[in-house]
Specification:
disordered N terminus, four-stranded antiparallel beta sheet, about 425 residues, seven-stranded antiparallel beta sheet, about 0% helix, 1 helix, mainly beta
């Protein structure tokens, strides 16, 4: 999930995006073209300047071991990250180093130099974190201490290990805060102006740059972070905390904020096993239960009423997973199709014309999905696809190669 950020265009065309080699993609030297070959399965040789490399096909992404399927996705405001064969690969905007390496924005997925085998990845608005061998690594914007390094301000384009927290298994990235869960506790860090850290503060606090224990939640099964609120599924139900201006905490009231995890006292959420949060709305469901959503609803991201909802509202879906962006929501249905609803001004619903109800994106075999501010990505039958706004290369496609900076058609992410 991510908060809404203004468009940051450096020129009228988007052709200023470079690939991972720091040169405009394509166009090798004659010497390279004459000798470049590859033995990588599912790839063809590719020259970028003098460098002989390869390009993966059929929706596979590059990794150190060749061409592989992405197994997890997460999206920030204008960047996207995937977990590929134990590596973190990111593409899109890089003005804060959120791709995990120095340089300009890149529509080509680049590797974030995380030490160890990556088992989870989470993108916040302008930062990214990953778990590798139980350690949490973060990079990108650190204005509010969301990298968990004990400092506030600046950014890091190089992944940094979060100190004093180990054994992590689950991650969530919000607008300017981060949360992680281990076998014994849940901790959050970053901005805490609305109590989104969940430490029980009695008033708005300065940022918490160190992993801070979340009170009264134990070890949740699932966690998600919005712009300034957080929700988790615990053994005793679904809890939410942080900003509640649009009723996104689901506690049948709106306004104010809560710094202590608050149980949503609604039996309809019994059996919930996962949560997904947008900027100011929330959803929860389970593999054997109906999906429910609540919170901001001005663009029908909750239901077709168009009115903010202070308590869970039933959708027509039985879902396996749910994600949300600034004003849209997408869920993997029980039959592994993908349904999306809400704001569609950039084609983020995966269909050109959409009304107020959920639409079928037209994919099957969907194993993973991620929603950014105004874009969406999914892994379907092993193919990584993205659609929506592409002003920063967040779709994994060269903006200069398309007639507009957005597309409603799911397109394969670059295998370069």
């Amino acid at each position: 999930m991510s908060r809404l950020l203004p468009l940051l265009l450096s020129c009228a065309c988007a052709g200023s995006l470079l690939d991972h080699s720091g040169v405009l993609p394509g166009g090798g030297t004659p010497a390279c073209e004459a000798t470049c070959t590859t033995t990588v399965t599912g790839a063809t040789a590719l020259c970028v300047g003098d460098t002989c490399t390869y390009e993966c096909h059929d929706g596979q992404l590059k990794s150190g071991s060749g061409c592989n399927k992405a197994t997890a996705l997460s999206a920030g405001a204008s960047h996207t990250c995937a977990m590929v064969a134990g590596e973190a690969r990111c593409w899109g905007a890089n003005d804060q180093g959120q791709l995990g390496r120095p340089g300009v924005s890149s529509f080509v997925p680049v590797q974030a130099a995380v030490t160890g085998s990556v088992t989870a990845i989470a993108a916040g608005s302008l930062h990214t974190c990953a778990i590798a061998d139980g350690d949490v690594w973060c990079w990108g914007d650190n204005t509010f201490g969301q990298l968990g390094l004990g400092t506030v301000g600046g950014n890091s384009a190089t992944p940094q290990k979060v100190p004093n927290f180990s054994g992590a298994s689950t991650l969530a990235g919000g607008g300017s805060h981060t949360c992680a869960v281990s076998a014994t506790e849940m901790r959050c860090w970053g901005r805490n102006n609305h109590g989104q850290i969940g430490n029980g503060a009695s008033s708005a606090e300065p940022p918490r740059s160190d992993p801070t224990p979340v009170v009264g939640i134990g070890v949740p099964l699932s966690v998600a972070a919005g712009d300034a609120h957080t929700c988790a599924v615990a053994t005793s139900g679904v809890f939410c905390w942080g900003n509640n201006e649009a009723g996104q905490l689901g506690i049948n009231q709106s306004g104010g904020w809560h710094s202590t995890p608050t149980l949503i006292n609604d039996s309809t959420l019994n059996g919930a096993s996962f949560v997904g949060l947008g900027a100011n709305h929330s959803c929860a469901g389970g593999v054997s239960t109906t999906l429910y959503c609540w919170g901001a609803n001005g663009v029908f991201q909750v239901d077709s009423s168009g009115q903010d909802q202070k308590s869970p509202r039933q959708t027509s879906l039985s879902a396996r997973a749910v994600v949300a962006g600034t004003g849209h929501t997408c869920a993997i249905a029980s039959d592994e199709s993908l349904k999306c609803w809400g704001l569609n001004q950039s084609g983020q619903l995966g269909i050109a014309n959409a009304g107020q109800d959920a639409v079928d994106v037209g994919l099957n075999g969907v194993q993973a999905v991620a929603a950014g501010s105004k874009h969406t990505c999914a892994v379907a039958n092993g193919v990584t696809l993205c659609w929506g706004l592409n002003d920063r290369g967040q779709l994994g496609a060269d903006p200069a190669s398309t007639a507009s900076l957005s597309t409603a058609r799911p397109s394969t992410v670059s295998g370069r």
